[in-house]
Design a protein that fits this description.
alpha/beta, 7-stranded parallel sheet, about 45% helix, about 15% strand, globular
Length: about 425
């Protein structure tokens, strides 16, 4: 399996090289890893403090890492924090994040890279977020007896760990001193293959969104745009999400909408502007003195604003559910917004929970979206029940960060 895995890593890197000819993300993936190991070795040689290494796949997982990073920074400033990302969509957005001392792409998981990276960083502890299982890195951490933790993880019966051919991944789990999981089902599944070093801690994103709600930033442009109107925010949307939203927008001319595309694709933004009957404006072309007139839609064509923007809204739609999976629903839930999203949500525990609580609903078409929205628009009692359910759920599930960081620091002192 080791030989096959290493061949697979080589083939994956080769495929990225081919894709980089036409794909911007692939080019960033390659560019960010050029001479990376040498840079890490140089940086680590100059920073003599003890290190904690935290790895996230992408931006969503980083939001789970962030409360832990900030707790470490506050309570243990003697540690140097090394953050790595696999994906450009995480690294490129957070490469200047001030609470980490060093931020890199994760070098490709070859045996040589894993040995050199772990040897250079020499982490006092390593923390992997949710579902990153790089076999060579985990093997090297295991060889060095580095305390290693998995955080906010979810396991499912059909995943590779529970298949007859998944022995290499089952062995990799032995690297982790503690597996902090989101739910009881994950703990039971891990117990079935002999792992009892499992703690049901929940999801650290609840702590992250609680901090956002407590310290939200005023957004004067959205304040001005939404004055005297109720606001519907659609966050992290893709093309299929926008298609059904446009129908909803055009049938609700007395409601104002904010649409925050997941990627700033000019063709898609142009399509939204052309399709909205009530008129649309761009955030980047507006000021807090703008006269929005009768414009019905504000396109949030910037980053770093969405999480606080939800505080101005009454309802939310979260994108991604017609693709690989929905984006962050908790940022909206913490402000008590009823939420709709597309059909691909089953891998997200919080989405399943909020549907059960009737704080959220999955929709497959514009008609289903309109059917969900109408009673929330017209019936204040119905809206209040859904809003309280969302906010209560977000508040109830805080606390994972304290549990995890206390356990980690107790073990590495």
């Amino acid at each position: 399996m080791g030989i096959l895995y290493n061949i697979g890593i080589g083939c994956y890197t080769a495929a990225i090289s081919v894709a980089s000819v036409a794909n911007a993300k692939a080019r960033l993936w390659l560019k960010g890893r050029k001479a990376l190991i040498e840079r890490v070795e140089s940086d680590m040689a100059q920073d003599r403090r003890p290190k904690i290494w935290i790895h996230s796949a992408s931006l969503g997982e980083f939001e789970q890492a962030r409360p832990i990073i900030e707790r470490i920074r506050t309570e243990h400033p003697e540690y140097s924090i090394v953050v790595t990302f696999f994906s450009p969509s995480g690294y490129e957005i957070r490469k200047n994040y001030s609470e980490a001392d060093h931020i890199y792409y994760l070098p490709s998981d070859t045996q040589r890279n894993a040995k050199r990276f772990v040897e250079a960083v020499a982490p006092r502890a390593a923390i992997f977020i949710k579902y990153e299982f790089w076999l060579n890195y985990l093997s090297e951490l295991r060889r060095r007896s580095t305390p290693t933790y998995l955080v906010s993880a979810i396991f499912r019966r059909n995943s590779i760990f529970f298949q007859p051919w998944g022995w290499a991944w089952r062995r990799a789990l032995a690297t982790f001193d503690t597996l902090f999981v989101q739910n009881d089902i994950s703990k039971q599944l891990l117990g079935s293959i002999g792992y009892d070093n499992v703690v049901v801690a929940g999801d650290t994103r609840f702590d992250r969104v609680a901090a956002i709600a407590k310290h939200r930033h005023p957004i004067p442009i959205i304040e001005r745009f939404s004055e005297d109107s109720r606001l519907f925010i659609a966050g992290s949307t893709w093309g299929p999400d926008e298609q059904i939203l446009i129908e909803l927008i055009n049938e609700n001319r007395d409601i104002r909408f904010v649409i925050a595309p997941h990627e700033m694709d000019e063709a898609r933004i142009g399509h939204i502007i052309a399709s909205v009957k009530g008129g649309a404006v761009r955030y980047t072309e507006s000021t807090d003195q703008s006269d929005f007139g009768s414009a019905q839609v504000l396109i949030l064509d910037t980053i770093g604003v969405l999480s606080s923007a939800y505080s101005y809204a009454t309802w939310a739609y979260i994108g991604g559910g017609f693709g690989v999976g929905i984006h962050n629903t908790l940022e909206a839930a913490t402000f008590g917004l009823p939420i709709a999203f597309g059909p691909k949500y089953s891998k997200f525990q919080e989405a399943c929970d909020m549907i059960e609580l009737r704080a959220a609903q999955s929709v497959r078409s514009a008609e289903e979206l309109k059917s969900w929205f109408k009673p929330l628009r017209d019936d204040e009692h119905h809206l209040e029940r859904a809003s309280l359910a969302a906010k209560g759920y977000a508040e109830k599930n805080c606390g994972a960060t304290s549990l995890i960081t206390e356990a980690i620091f107790a073990s590495i002192k």
